[in-house]
Amino acid sequence: MLSKVDRANSLEEITRLEESGVDLISFDIAFPGSELTIEDGRSLDPRRALELRGNVRKARTVAMLDFVGPEPEWIRSKAEVFSSFDYVQATSHQLGYEGVLPAVRGAGRPVICSQIIADYDMDPSWIRGEIEDPSRAGLKYYEIQVVTGVQNSWRNLKEESPKHEEELQVSDLRSMTLDFPLFFALDFSLENVEEILKAFPRLEGWTITLGGDPESSLRHFHTAERALEVLGREV
């Protein structure tokens, strides 16, 4: 099972992440004039991102397009930057706009669709429909943010959701891993990472996102230190 860490932004982090055995490292690239979705200082200008990418020795690298409203022609104009990485990652919201997926694919790299939300009150068919939509179909991986904005989200998912049949269940997520190449982002910790990964044996991979707001209702965020601790406990 692959491990991916998003939004690395220093040589020290890259070195420590590679020492931990991480498989994919993502860089949140901020082009001049782009409106960022996360304002925490972790985004990198293209030159710095390429510099750090050049220092990655073993892991595969991912260029993140995590900003508001990119136009297809604008994305095509940045293909040279994106093609320097092993993958290009765009959010599900971005890929929903007409012409964005062909533009992203123009970099000639496999595409990861991120930021698919799976909240506790969502019907599984909605999540499946988002993945199967023609604007997102046939990509390398799909990354699902599982039950964000809830404290102890994994515990709630496995202990509280079974009391409410209409809520999203662990079995629903497990079923999706049989049909799609998925990464899950959850509230990974030293206490639960082994249990989570064992619960989804067909999962392609798992994602830890650095920085941001720990109370975010849209993503699970981790500090770099916590991420390294969790990676050291991978099964």
> Approximately how much beta-strand content do the residues carry?
15-25%
Q: Based on the structure, what is the oligomeric state of the protein chains?
A: single chain
Which class of secondary structure composition applies to the elements?
alpha/beta
Largest sheet: spatial strand order: 1-2-3-4-5-6-7-8
Question: What characterizes the major β-sheet?
Answer: 8 strands, parallel, barrel
- Which regions have little confidence, pLDDT < 50, spanning 5+ residues? none
The first-to-last residue Cα distance is 9 Å
Counted beta strands = 9
CATH topology: TIM Barrel
Label the overall shape.
globular
Order of helices and strands: EHEHEHHEHHEHEHHEHEEH
What CATH architecture do you see? Alpha-Beta Barrel
Secondary structure: helix percent: 25-40%
Question: What's the Cα radius of gyration?
Answer: 17 Å
Rounded mean pLDDT is 90
What's the helix count?
11
Q: How many domains in all? A: 1
Look at the structure and name the CATH superfamily.
Aldolase class I
CATH class: Alpha Beta
Describe the structure.
The chain is of the alpha/beta class and 235 residues long. It has a single domain, classed as Aldolase class I (TIM Barrel), CATH 3.20.20.70. Helices cover 34% and strands 20% of the residues. The protein has an eight-stranded parallel β-barrel. Strand 2, helix 2 and strand 3 form a beta-alpha-beta unit. The longest helix is centred in the C-terminal third of the chain and has 10 residues, at 170-179. The radius of gyration is 17 Å and the shape is globular. 41% of the residues are buried. The mean pLDDT is 90.
